[in-house]
Amino acid sequence: MVRKNSHDRIEIKVQNIPPPPPRPLYPPPYPWYPWLIPMFFNINIILFIVSMYINNCPAHSRTCIGAQMLQRFAFENVHDNPLLGPSTATLVKMGALDAIKVIQGGQQWRILTCMWLHAGVFHIFANMLSLLSVGVRLEQEFGFVRIGLLYILSGIDGSLLSALFIQKTISVGASGALFGLLGAMLSELLTNWTIYANKLAALTTLVLMILINLMVGILPHVDNFAHIGGFVTGFFLGFILLIRPHFHWINQTISPFGYYGQPRKSRYKLYQYIFLILSIIALIVMFTIGFVFLFRKVDGNDYCSWCHYLSCVPTSLWSCDPQCNSTRSGNELNLKCLNNGKSKSYMLLDGNDMMLIQELCANLCI
């Protein structure tokens, strides 16, 4: 500032301007660009189209849905597949989870491939809608590496639990991986509790959504073991992969130098470290026991007589264990469901494929 005094002398006063604060050591995070979850979405869609092409319903059935318009992409009859999709034989050929083939045939690769296949239009529509609505937001917040690991590992453990407990029907779908994302959202909320504003509202909404989805799993022909396995794995992985620094640590890292006069706080709270250690131990135990049982060809129902109720609860409206009478004439198989009286004939290339026959019986008894 410049000023003249009465003696015509010029006085210059220099004001002390404080230097700008240093750049934060940990700047506020920016959202990740989501590309992995959309890629998973495209893979699932492409594989479903490929499965319909390989299925080629008009080549082996006269009761296909949309045969004139869709030609070889036509859907199987609703009595064979009520979800509007390919046949059971096609899904098995492409890598569906067939417990007998996994345990006795040494085809453990099906534990991974089954999570990319879907039984029909309704099935893939519901799963892909959930994948985009949940997965994209998580990838934006935590990045593709952590969410990719979470998705794959949850899907594998869901398939592993399903192979140990459901050995009469095949299983396909991304539901195990999707439930892993839901489980991780719950553990992320718990371990990062201090940074959330509406804690109880978020927790209540998330728990209700999880419970509703698990309750759907007690209906027949829904693989709830994949849901449960994926959810538990995702829940523990969330404590490891989605842990975030607590609120006070974030404040001190983005504040000007010297603003905090107190000693600097630890990045994570004690309970976050406890959750992380316990989750690592739990996951090691789960995967070790699961794969040991799988390679020793163990039927999980032999060790847990009531666990089958976790996947299906029988009522007066449906049966969880459909029974059929069967007669054979060459490659022709005639089935009659004892639960609803329906009967149907099938042409089988392998008349001794008991897993396929059980699956046809299950579809006939719907």
Reconstruct the topology from this structure.
Layout: E1 2-4, E2 10-12, H1 36-55, H2 67-70, H3 88-94, H4 99-103, H5 110-113, H6 121-142, H7 144-165, H8 175-191, H9 199-216, H10 224-241, H11 247-253, H12 270-295, E3 324-329, E4 332-337, E5 343-347, H13 354-364
Antiparallel strand pairs: 1-2, 3-4, 4-5
Task: Characterise this structure.
By secondary structure, this protein is mainly α. It folds into two domains: 37-254 and 266-313, Up-down Bundle (Rhomboid-like fold); 321-366, no CATH class. The protein is 49% helix and 6% strand. The protein has helices at 36-55, 67-70, 88-94, 99-103, 110-113, 121-142, 144-165, 175-191, 199-216, 224-241, 247-253, 270-295, 354-364, and strands at residues 2-4, 10-12, 324-329, 332-337, 343-347. It has a three-stranded antiparallel β-sheet with strand order 3-4-5, with helices on one face. Strands 1-2 form a two-stranded antiparallel ribbon. It is globular.
Domains (count): 2
Strands in their spatial order, largest beta sheet:
3-4-5
Low-confidence stretches: 21-28
How many strands?
5
Pattern of helices and strands: EEHHHHHHHHHHHHEEEH
Approximately what portion of the residues adopt beta-strand conformation?
5-15%
* Proportion of residues in helical segments: 40-55%
CATH topology of the largest domain: Rhomboid-like fold
Major sheet summary line: 3 strands, antiparallel
Which quaternary structure do these chains form?
A: single chain
Q: Which structural category do the helix and sheet elements fall into?
A: mainly alpha
**Distance between the ends:** 89 Å
Number of helices: 13
CATH class wording of the largest domain? Mainly Alpha
| Rg, nearest Å | 28 Å
Shape: globular
